[in-house]
Specification:
CATH superfamily: chitin-binding protein cbp21
CATH class: Mainly Beta
CATH topology: Coagulation Factor XIII, Chain A, domain 1
Radius of gyration: 19 Å
Helix content: 10-25%
Largest sheet: 6 strands, mixed
Number of strands: 9
Strand content: 25-35%
Number of helices: 2
Shape: globular
CATH architecture: Distorted Sandwich
Length: 196
């Protein structure tokens, strides 16, 4: 009698368990160099951040930015309403990382889970950008200043990407890192305030 009930129960669990676990998976990465808004909230450097302070790795939204992806004004939060504090410009008062325009630089992503990766891309705001307003596509230079192609490979841990900072920039800017995932329709978004 036990076998009669145990086998169907095991079959149901074998089918249902992966589906249930897949639905609760957490999202998985953010930039730490330059330090992102997500990281600043998670470490407590910036207060009143809401849920992002507990889930800095969870800014996952639709990929194919800038043609698709999160709506203008919601880019830093990946279009996720509960992370809207990341889109709040705080009157331009987010702490900034000091950088030298045109200089060599190593960009870093911290991961809590690894995904097959298409690429990492970095965009920067145009000269004259207003840091007191939420980020829009029109605020950014149209093409990424750095792209690191991965061709579907999985990083083995945190990733350091050598490159060069954009030339001809001065003052407060925002760098948007986009981690495009190869085997899903999503990407991770990470905004870092910088001063050149």
């Amino acid at each position: 009698m036990r076998t009669r009930f145990a086998l169907p129960l095991l079959a149901v669990l074998a089918v249902a368990l992966p589906v249930l676990l897949a639905g609760v998976a957490q999202a998985h990465g953010y930039t730490t160099n330059p330090v992102s808004r997500s990281s600043l909230c998670a470490t407590g450097v910036v207060k009143n951040c809401g849920d992002i302070q507990y889930e800095p790795q969870s800014v996952e939204g639709p990929k194919n930015f800038p043609a698709a992806g999160p709506a203008d004004g919601k880019i830093c939060a990946g279009g996720i309403a509960r992370f809207a504090q990341l889109d709040d410009p705080r009157s331009g008062a987010w702490p900034t990382t000091k950088l030298t325009s045109g200089a060599p630089y190593t960009f870093t992503w911290h991961f809590t889970a690894i995904h097959a990766t298409t690429d990492f891309r970095y965009f920067v705001t145009r000269n004259g950008w207003d840091p007191t307003k939420p980020l829009t596509r029109a605020s950014l230079d149209p093409a990424p200043f750095l792209t690191s192609n991965w061709g579907g490979k999985r990083p083995s841990g945190d990733v350091s990407i050598p490159g060069a900072l954009p030339a001809g920039k001065t003052g407060h800017h925002l760098i948007l890192g986009v981690w495009d995932i190869a085997d899903t329709g999503n990407a991770f978004y990470s905004c870092a305030d910088v001063t050149f």
